[in-house]
Design brief:
Largest sheet: 3 strands, antiparallel
Strand order of the largest sheet: 1-3-2
Structural class: mainly beta
Oligomer: single chain
Helix content: under 10%
Number of helices: 1
Shape: globular
């Protein structure tokens, strides 16, 4: 099964989950894989963060920064599948 992730705006609280714990939110841009540019290119991972490939379903990396065309911000990356 291919690993899937969501990018989450931490200002929105926690991602929504079903009663069984499965993620029911698709985050900011939908479910993505490791080849998405916001994971593979634009992400500026926090110091000491684990590799995104090592995340188990439900785990996340908080405070991932990005800079693009003069704008910048941060998001959290959750493994959802």
């Amino acid at each position: 099964m291919e690993r899937k992730y969501i990018l989450w705006d931490p200002r929105d609280g926690d991602p929504r989950r079903a009663d069984n714990g499965a993620f029911i939110s698709d985050g900011i841009i939908g479910r993505v894989t490791l080849d998405n540019v916001y994971i593979g290119v634009y992400a500026q991972w926090p110091d000491g963060a684990p590799s995104v490939q090592s995340l188990e379903v439900g785990q996340c990396i908080k405070g991932v920064r990005y800079g693009l065309s003069g704008s910048s911000g941060s998001y959290d990356v959750y493994r959802v599948q």
